[in-house]
Amino acid sequence: MGKWLQAFLFIAFASSIAAERNPRTERISGSAGDVLEDDPVGRLKVYVYELPSKYNKKILQKDPRCLSHMFAAEIYMHRFLLSSPVRTLNPEEADWFYTPIYATCDLTPTGLPLPFKSPRMVRSAIQLISSSWPYWNRTEGADHFFVVPHDFGPCFHYQEEKAIKRGILPILQRATLVQTFGQRNHVCLKDGSITIPPYAPPQKMQARKIPLNTPRSIFVYFRGLFYDVNNDPEGGYYARGARAAVWENFKNNPLFDISTEHPTTYYEDMQRAVFCLCPLGWAPWSPRLVEAVVFGCIPVIIADDIVLPFADAIPWEEIGVFVAEEDVHKLDTILTSIPPEVILRKQRLLANPSMKRAMLFPQPALPGDAFHQILNGLARKLPHQKSIYLKPGEKILNWTAGPVGDLKPW
Amino acid sequence: MKLSTSQQGYLNRRSNSFRLSRPLESDSDSGVKSPTGTFRLILHCLCCLICLILGFHFSRLVPFLFSTSTNFYTSPFRFTESLDVHFLLSTNPVNDVELSQPNSTGKNSRVVVGRHGIRVRQWPHPNPTEVMKAHRIIERVQREQRLQFDAKDPRKVIVVTPTYVRTFQALHLTGLMHSLMLVPYGLVWIVVEAGGVSNETASLIAKSGLQTIHAGFNQRMPNSWDERTKLESQMRLHALRIVREMKLDGIVMFADDSNVHTMELFDEIQNLKWFGAVSVGILVKTANANVSADRKNGEDENHGFPVQGPSCNATGMLTGWYTFNSLPFAGKTDAYIGDRATVSPRKFEWSGFVFNSRLLWKDGGGKPDWIKDIDTLDGDIDSPLCLVKDRSMVEPLGSCGRQVLVWWLRVEAHADSKFPPRWITDPPLEINIPSECSTPSTDAHPELPAGEKPATNFSGPIVKHTKETRISRTNKKDALMWTANCCTEKSDACGLIGCFAYTDSTLLETSQVIQTFLSDFLRNFDLQSSFPTGCSSMFSFIVKVCHITTNPCLFKVYQGSRNSLAHPINQLRKRGSERESNMSESPATATATAEEVVAGVGRKDGECAKKTIESENPNLTVVVARDGSPMTMDFRTNRVRVWVDEKGLVARTPTIG
Predict the structure, then answer these.
(1) Which of B4, B170, B430, B553 ranks highest by number of CB atoms within 10 Å?
(2) Between A28 and B93, residue with greater pLDDT
(3) Distance from first CA to last CA of chain A, Å, rounded?
(4) CA–CA separation, A31 vs A99, rounded Å?
(5) How far apart are CA B389 and CA B368, in angstroms?
(6) pLDDT for B47 beyond 70
(7) Chain B neighbours among A 304-333 (CB < 8 Å)?
(8) What stretch of H or E contains A207?
(9) How many CB pairs (< 8 A) connect A and B?
(10) Gap from B261 CA to chain A (nearest CA, Å)
(11) What was the pLDDT predicted at B4?
(12) Which of A172, A181, A187, A216 would best serve as a mutation to test chain B binding (most B beta carbons within 10 A)?
């Protein structure tokens, strides 16, 4: 009996997968500007919790490198909200609550973030806000949002197996998560999360713009790892073999300008290329996506089931090229068979400044930038459903779930 | 269908997880067959004990220890569609970590986590058609960029061309005209003609549809190259005066009628401000090996290239000029137009310079003060550089002269060469190549690779010895029937069975292709039934091989038996020489005769051949002769000699004479 029930559930699950494969995001025809141009001011109010500086500023003081790596969105989001007109100082009138914690700012000497302490830190912060303010307990976080721009977002581990095993941190199960990680039907992406672009230094990119009439003479451009020899000596785990396949099939192809060496002209070269490869690495997302859009190079997205930043506002299907991981060896055929008119249209859409703005976290913030898109995303979730408010005494979250190590005090 | 695959997937998954759930220590403790829960409990207790002793959480460490030694990536959810990947992988599922956690919501990605195969295709090289497509895409993208971002109102191009009526004028001027017609900018073409405006030139340039100014120049073109160059300079100056009088606004460039231009040149000169220089490739024809050797030495000495153009330093500033070293040619160059030696360029060719036409204006246009007025020149200047007081103001174009954008070439008809006046042939020329078999589209298969089956690729006709009957090779049954009939009529295996074309480079391969074709022909040809008894088992094939474009047809005769095919018994024989000799007496008959004669070789014996030829053309006298026997030396166009060997079989192609 139980077996049959399981079978039924599985079939339901499988059919839901089949349904998910169809693009479900809203598409914007033509200029793709309308939703991106929305102004969130006046449509929502955000209350920023005052946390002790050990949760944010102190951590940053310890390691200022956090300001420039690709997970820096959490820091800039905090700074942005502090001076944003959507911020309210009266928590009673707030639609959303923001907890400023820099959970990923713990870098190894080589600059790689280690998220091992993050769960304890998040837990500690939530314990603090739930005991000092009444708002967390009202909904158990359903009207709170957290910026978790790590590899696998709220799963807080950089290895996918471990991340999947951990799942979303139990106490964040009800909160809205703002994360870079996005993959359909993945345990680390729950419904209602907002997928954001990774942080790429906006000033630096702006300074390296070359004239728009510089002929794009590179057909396909890619710089980065193909094999991660240290973490994946056998090959095939890293990027699920897709990057290795790119290298093995196209290393000698004159149309493919691919290499592991990161030249000083990297940004300039992207502006001279027609297609820029954005294959998955350990995680499906990469900063190349941002760079490609900003530099008008058509992103070739090789990451099955990826959920792209602001997919409800940016017509990724129209501006990018999606290549299945298993088709990487046919990349040249796929790219050359795209009609030139389609390519020109993609380039026109990419040239849309609102698209580029939405990918960046500039200092100071500009209308339509990624900060505003996050706020737009939050505003579109309003008003909150009545069901998120718990009855007095009702508890849903299990504070003792999860690995024992996460339960230790921070 | 979907349901069944899903169930299949489900079963896979179930069995997988059963296998997986008995996992981690299975190689150390393979005897354990207890259900999952019990085992996990035992494991947990064990870990707890170790934890108590060691003081840390050991159970976290266990999978880690195992995974580092083997692989800790898991592949539990494989749907049938991803199974094809699976066989590529080294499967090591024993240590897979179980995925379904109590806190995960049960949903998981369709995308399989873990080790994947690296798909490498068999043939990694790019497909030429795709490369071509890619370049088209790049070109299209760049064109769009130019349209969008480049100067919105491009400047007019003013092209100055000195010319005069001569044999090669049509040749050169047409070529230049076609280049100019492709220029995507506004264009004025000033053609200055020596010896006054002529109808020939006017009718040529009128066809261009361009805005043209056809001006006459009151001197005839002299006969020596030196004088010609001087006069051409004066003609160009004349054109510049026209530019000034008409106050034409644009970029002046000098296009001699024999120059060849890249289209990039016209884009590049749009970037010009005042006075620019581009690199010119000098194409010098070396008249003999001696000169070329000399030139080679010269090049080795100063690492020279036959290029004239600006050269820059690292910052892109003009530092000097690179000119063509004509010293090796001294004493060997043409003095007079029409000589057979090479024509060497001047130190600075005009075609390497472009400038803003406002420099020529008398007033206005904001022209800089480092330019000379053309009226102050005495009309005898070497190059436009004389117009510039300060040569450092010259803008180097084309990536600082690194790109050669123009080719300079002087080719004129030799004084003793014959060309039809105005390139009109009247009366029509006599035929020296018959139209048959020389059209590559139908008959030519020189590139047929030996590996392919000629039977399917060969589309050339099988030609019967009468011209009316052509039986397509593709209609094999008919072909066989025909040959069989032929044989019954005691004219077995006669006729031309293949027609091939060759080029100079494929001549050798052709022979292989024919061999393959004939072997295939034989294989598909049931000799026993096709040739009734009484026919000789020996027969010969004639294959006609024509040069793909011009040269005469050649014939190859292959001798075959029922089981084998011998090498050609006579080698290629030129038809052209034969033709020339019987031109006098009704060429048409001679052509037909040659065809028929050739067709007759395929017979089993000389007499049979004789009869056939005679029946085809009663006017001919056919003589059967032993190959190699002495013959009378007189040449008679109505006589055909059929050469036979000692058995009476045709030994080689019958000949006229």
Answers:
(1) B553
(2) A28
(3) 46
(4) 35
(5) 11
(6) no
(7) 304-305, 325-326, 328-330, 332-333
(8) helix A202-207
(9) 173
(10) 21
(11) 42
(12) A187
